[in-house]
## 1
Amino acid sequence: MSVTTASAAAASLAQVVRRHGARSDALIEVLHQVQEIHGYLPPEALREVATLMRLPLSRVYGVASFYHLFRLEPPTDHRCAVCLGTACFVRGAAQLAQRLETRLGVDLDDAAGNGTWALQHVSCLGACGQAPVVVVDGVLLTKLPVDRREELESQLDAAGIPRPPTV
Amino acid sequence: MPVLQPETPSRQLRCCGASGCRSAGGEALLAALRTARDADAGAAAGLTIKPVGCLRLCGRGPLVACDGPEGTRLYGAVPPEHAADLLAAAREDGPDAGVARAALEPHRLDLDEPFFRLQRPVVLETCGQVDPESIDDAFAHGAYDQLRRVLAELTPKQVRDEVRRSGLRGRGGAGYPTGLKWDTVALQPPGPRTVVCNADEGDPGAFMDRSVLESDPHRLIEGMAIAAYAVGADHGYVYVRAEYPLAIERLRLALQQARRKGVLGRGIFDSEFSLAIEVRVGAGAYVCGEETALLLSIQGQRGMPRPRPPYPAQSGLWGAPTLINNVETFSAVPAILREGGDWYAAMGTEGSRGTKVFALSGAVRHTGLVEVPMGMPLRTVVEEMGGGVPDGSAVKAVQTGGPSGGCIPAEQLDTPVDYESLLSLGSMMGSGGMVVMGETTSMPVVARHFMRFSVNESCGKCVPCRAGTVQLAELLDRFVEHRAETADLERLEELCGMVRATSLCGLGQAAPNPVLSTLRWFRHEYEAALREPSHCEPPDSCTVGADGETRGYAP
Amino acid sequence: MSVVTLRVNGQEVAVPAGASLLEAARAAGVELPTLCHLEGLTPVGACRLCLVASETGGRLLPACATEAAEGMAIRTDTEELQRYRRMTVELFFAEGNHVCAFCVANGDCELQDVAVAVGMDHSRFPYRYPHRHVDASHPLFALDHHRCILCTRCVRVCDEIEGAHVWDVAQRGSECTIIAGLDEPWGAVEACTSCGKCVDVCPTGALFRKEDTTAEKHPHAERPEQLRRAREQQQWRNQ
């Protein structure tokens, strides 16, 4: 990060905290906004949040690591989330997750992924009527045909999920 | 009033703009309709195209309801290419109306089907009718009329009496009597109070509250405001899970409009009553649906439950008496005040009054939202309304109550849906998710699915939940992978009993339910998963005591 | 001072209003096993060892975190509670890496004592052998995560008595871990005053003085209560 963007980020972070009046109960809201700025929660930003909000460092880290939507590592460029909620599960989400793991060459819930793509699970997106669902870079794919391999692969192609490199 | 059919049908097209239909292309369809209308301004005059909330049959989205004096026709899975046909079909006696209607016939959904016909909309009475982004439209549908009346005519105690008379019980899962909860908060020693709406709908398979937030947010706000008046609170929070961005957006917009119109703020409707409501967004923790964890999360902390008592009604947010109800509970309140507690209590069963919204999903033909009177047989909901398993095979089980509930076997489908009946079957009402399972679903696999969920969502504070669920998931692995022994079955049951009895909060206490209920109804599947003696590993890999108990590892 | 009376295992006891069920049990001469509880610190009810059965509701209540109420009747040692306590200790042993023979706290360890008290001689649940680490970055003390049972006494004593809040819990579920600062080496955390209270209250060998080797740790779990009482009653010697 260049000096100017770093100081701009610090300035906007201070703004975010000020907007909440530095009230300690706003910590989760503040962390959401910090993640929006950086894409994740870098340690230096957490330190800054703790200082500005007058909170112990360990309390800030404890909260940041408790909630699974907060990322403590830089995200990969592309992200795919497979829903493993019950409705999706009944409609083949586990096989879908396996297929995505193979296709991307990643392990489910390994934040580092393959360097470019990471695959995570979500517990339920409330899109049970469209099960099974996958989110690719923020776009929801619905009613994926798990049983029809060809059709599934072409829908995943269309969503921009790369096929595994042919050996 | 039948579901989805407006009282005064003007010519209009109502497009579902809730998450389900959006993900199926609802926005593209709405845009195409508007383009088609603008291109044909003269012919389409007098025709309203209105974005609305959930039209119920989410599995067939995007849904469009076409209203006219002759009634309402509903279309599903409509591609944007049909926009012109929809406009023509909606127009009065247009020359193309007949042709267009014929073209749309394959997309037509029959509102006389049990899925729609058997619904009894109360919480959802204006869901799918009202534009969720317009407070004026909400006013036109009667929003805030009851708040206005209550503030002018009723004392807080009269409001609580009405709610108590309705027999309404908490729709979040446990079914605690709502009136009693309100009384408990109201009767605390003088001082500040808070109302909190639990919109952290986390049970997999549940999307009722999301639909209410996305479709009719003013109903929730009105219900909360009435509750706040009834218990003497002047501050409220809605805690919404971050996984529901559209619901958050619409709720925030609705709150902003409500403030601007003076239905929130100081001296509401020229009364002494003031109320401010804030939105708090979660960050991905199922346990925050537990009320003490939710309160800590609102306070910006780790969402770790604490022992109760004291209950939040006595000591909640920042130590003040706090009323916590979920979205559906608050949203039932305006109709109860309007029609009276007795009216509401006349629906449902002795112990479970009124109606309940269920989210039908899984191996079922019609997936979506249904609101039905309590006490309706499960079979009616799943087989008649839901239409059974898509391929026509038999239903094997219905899962209710999410990770805290259980699987109800097909032979028990005639059970009426109410709090006590579901509990007696080893499941629970939960928040209203109903996932249908077909013959191909293996019950030990389902049990492991839920146990892994609980492992992942355990907060880690108390040891039975933190370490017990991990051991349970491993034991279930042994069954799923056919390497379990008879002793594992005993160990599984014993540990389930211990985790249930000793965990600190509801999440841990209920975590064994999916295992216990599948053990109760589908025990043969666990027994069939026991390892054959012939496949047994050499005896030195495990030590078996004289009593047949496998010895673990001494510390 | 108002008093409440209740029955513990059938025996009537009177305790000051506001007393916990744990204190009521003690008043009846019953010693309940505890791990997370410590006099002088806020109770959290996390270890579940002090659960008692209410004779009226049948519910299990954490004695440390439940206020005694007039007319209550509790049982502290039913067959069921004994079974649960034993399983609880088994789960503690199985989730960490507890090897008494090499441990600084051997012979003076509350986990060990509790295991003896509830009669746990082996675990029926397989050991998980989690990958954990040792933080020896502090000049005086060390934290061996293998032996941590997440009782959070260190977190509470540092926050409530010392006022430094060096420690907290990070992650969740079985991934939970005690952290210093932003999950940093303990020695790098400026807020630490090196007072050693966390070491004094740790029930196992997780927190220890570097100079102590096997079986040489002697904790001082009584200190938080002494300090709190001294503070509240202003018993400082030089005042």
## 2
Amino acid sequence: MVSSHRWISHVSWEKRSGGSSHYFTYLVISLYCLFHQQSVAQADSLRYVFQSAAPSGSSLFSLTGRITDINNQPVSRVSIYVDGQFTGTNTDDQGRYFIALKPGDYRVVFRHVAMLPVIITIVLRNNGVVDLVMNERKFNLQEVVIEAEGADQYVSKIDAGVVQMGITELKQIPSFLGEPDVIKGLQFMPGITSVGEGSAGINIRGGQADQNLIMINEVMVLSANHALGFLSPFNPDVVQDFTLFKGNLPSYYGGRSSAALNIQMKDGDDEQWTLKATAGTTASKLFAEGPVIKNKVSLISGLRISNTNWILRQASNDDIRNSSLVFHDVYGSVRYKISPKSHINFNTLSTGDNFLFNETFGYDWRSTITSLHFKSMPTNRLALQALAAYGRFKNSYVDPSGNESATLRNGITYWQTKASALLTLTKHTLTVGAESIFYLSDPESLSPYDEQSAISSRSIEKDKGVEIAGFIAEEWTPWPSLGISAGLRFSLFQQRAPDSVFLYASGQTKSRASITDTLVFNHGVLKQYHGFEPRVSIRISTAKNQSVKVSYNRLIQYIQSLSSTTAPTPIDLWQISSYYIKPQVSDNLSIGYFINVKENRWSFSAEAFYRKTKNVLDYKNFPDLFMNNHLETELITGRGKAYGMEFLLKRNQGKWTGWLAYTFSRSLIQMGGAYPEEQINNGAWYPAVYDKPHVASWVMNRKLWPNGSFGFSFTYSTGRPVNAVSSTYLVDGVSIPNYSLRNEYRIPDYYRVDFSITAGSIIKKINDSLTFTVYNLLARRNAYSVFYQSVDNSLMLKPYRLSILGTVFPSLTYTVTF
Amino acid sequence: MRRITYMRLCYRLIAVTLIGGIVSACIDRIEFPLKKDIKQLVVYGQLTNLEEPHYLYLSETFSGSNNPIIVNGVLITSALPTPVKGAQVTLYDDQGNQFPYRETEAGKYELQVLTQAMPGVNYRVRIEKADQIYESFPQQLPPSLGADSAYYEITEDVFPSKNKKRLTHLLNVYAKTTLPETEVYLRWVVDEVYFWELTFFPNPFNKPPPDCYVFSKADPQRITLFNNAGMNSRTITNQVASREIDASFKNRHYFIVRQLSMNKDNYRYWNQVKQLIGNTGSVFDTPPAPISSNLVNLSDKAENVLGYFEVNRVTETRFFVVRGYIPYYLEPYCEYDYRKPYDEYPEECITCSKFPNSTGIPPPWF
């Protein structure tokens, strides 16, 4: 039986053409739903008639409306299909949709992964508005068939290379230690990889991890690194859904040269309170949402605290047993409904991590993002949106032993503001707006760890700057078979005073020794960069269920992370563009073919992409990035290119759902500076550390009776590039590895199998669930890296393979909801 | 009752599975295939202020008889570089003097005439090998170094060893250093010299085995560096070596702590070496890269020469340990046992030459 059947539809058509038939329909449907256990298929009885008092003579009428959930929250990305039409459409972030149709009778289907589908019939002889309330999907006794979110969206949307996933879909993927994670889940999609297990960040279509703009509710997040990279700080309990733009970035997103990921957090329930507690082997969680003032002010809050140390205590390795790892994240949001069509949201996310490795070294990093959002819909065609946000990221490195025991601290604070207006017309959707981000880096400081330390305290000033952008975006659908999304962003960056700039001798590479003078700026602008960023995407629908999309994007990036390690780490420095560090500029091309068959039961897509980037940063060998106020002496600049093909076969509906993804891609870098110190591999192209030509993943999920599920995943990738030791030699008795050219070799290929089983109603009369997850079922010792060590006083260094997660990782998670 | 037993079994299974899958990194020895061999010159020479023999070592990676091993059609690292014989090595100073080196062993060249480096003089070494000429950048003797006092502590530690743990006793060597007021760049190395008692087999003349003195590096892979820039303390303590206590401690066992003062480039070289050999494959590793030496091929400046020629101011601190200082029982190793056939004795109990750097003549201070 469908447990949730209280769905309501209401029509505002009467304001235009008289509404007796609408009210009659509404009454009939409401009564029907009240007295019958309404099933989805029976929703065909929703019928709307939009008649004109007099013949209008118009050849096209508009069908518009707004889709909300039972809490009156807009439901975005509801796919809307009109039978007999070429393509459908999707609701926007405000839950609104717009379709232009010839006069006629139609059957319209509204689908969303988290909602029960709604099917209506309309008689369209005039413009009509259909606002619908969709009910959340509950999987219950008879419900063993699920549908993936907006299955047709990949075909119908104009933008290419968009990955949209709801939290429901994310939870279908078996996860490490039973904790569904946005960043880890995305890695099962084509074109998305990472350096390896335990490394922070993801690499999208051959881009570096810092080339991805990560946002929550459109507010920039600088640190998406939790638990040493095994998790991201986005507690799945408070995540609504997330959208990754890896092909075409709308012009209202910018500031990174590869991709954008927006994580939409949930709003609190307007009508009733829900409490949830979760105990897991890795983390425990508390969750609460509900009305503070019914239908006026709502609250949502999620807390996650690690409990990993008891696991570390069980390790046989002394170093691990004596280590500690603590992390937490707190999210809170309050929404105040000013009127039915406008509201204010106050959100804050605070995360903290502390890792100490056997009194040898430690990291501590914390992040806070607080924002205020205002959204309003003055008319059914106009939406206004504004946000003001404060973000802070700080980290510290601790070396607690020896004469040089010290704590190194870094941080950056930023203030972000953004305002936009969205106008929806018959065939056009127009967005205009502006955005600014002010960056202020903390002074970098080094202080003694304890009284035994010989270190003297010192600090150096860091940069500050402001990024300003204006944008305009237009979606135009001249014909159902053609959609054009075009946008233009103009961005400007200024490095602001007070600051100083070192001058270097000409004809030499920049080094401490080649400094000739210093320019001191007490006020004003030290350096300014700007540029236009055109964004175009075209969709040509070759049939109702298939389309071809082409896109071109130019992206400019004014902030990047600096890391002196192999992969991104929690203590990487964020460095804004400066006098010597130019912004990265990338040009991105993609073309894709999308098809859905068997009434969206199956989807298939094939996409090709090419990106070239200039001003890519790399480092001279053995860079000294900390406590260095002339970082330009350690950096080298070059160019990058990435290309590849992505294939995705997806089953959207049925007892089994899931997908099979394969990506062939290359990501290459060239550092061919004027001086030998500024060259890598003698100026030749070389593979990036995350270059993995072949990546495949297979994800399957099956609903189990009565209310459980079974998930399975398999992932494979080519081993990442590494430097190998070509020989070992002795210097004063020390065996020294002689390394090959940069990334000349590869570690062995990677593959892994995971599965999870979730069972609901463990204890009678309690709404609970138990999830058992096994990560790396085959206990494969996948290599993260290869390193060389001397063992038993041997003079020869021997290669060793490090497997970070080289065994089976089972986990149990128990959740109870009140 | 049956249900309770079943539930208990389930809980136990879950607990065992959870604990069995504890987060722990796995490290396995592998063979890593190489695409090609690389032949590079390796140079290491040291000139100090001490009146002692000064050597320069020349070798080549993957050269001559030291070809890499081919396994399943791929190359793997096989052995250390082979010595370079017959090179002409000369030390030059900025006073117009030149001092030849003489090859005393294959690849080992000893400086002639000059017995110690002098302050304020620039030195460079020139190597002529086949038709190639290599030269080091000029260096001076650093002006100062710290004053060391050395001591040791005995500890124990547990190491994993083939499916079991092994309790090991360690002798840790420390150097307590008083730093000068001027900026210094320091490195410590610890040499050891000990008397190795060969097995005294009964013989008609009751002739004892020959004396055996072994010279080696204690804990050679430990690189201890210190630079006092940005430091506020004049006294520091560093652990400079850790040595497993074994049969070599049955007789007098000397440790010589050498403090080497060097210039900034030389220090940077050793710092890079330290970073490379300290890598453990983790995400926090320094990206590995070739280390540049201070020698260049005059006719091919792009050639990457390995190693370093360094000019160091050195001070030595020496102490010894005898068996009585070791609070543990030392297992018999080379002691004669009438039940044991001759060929079951370890080779190092029979001949001193088993140790690569050994002699029958003790150093004068021993």
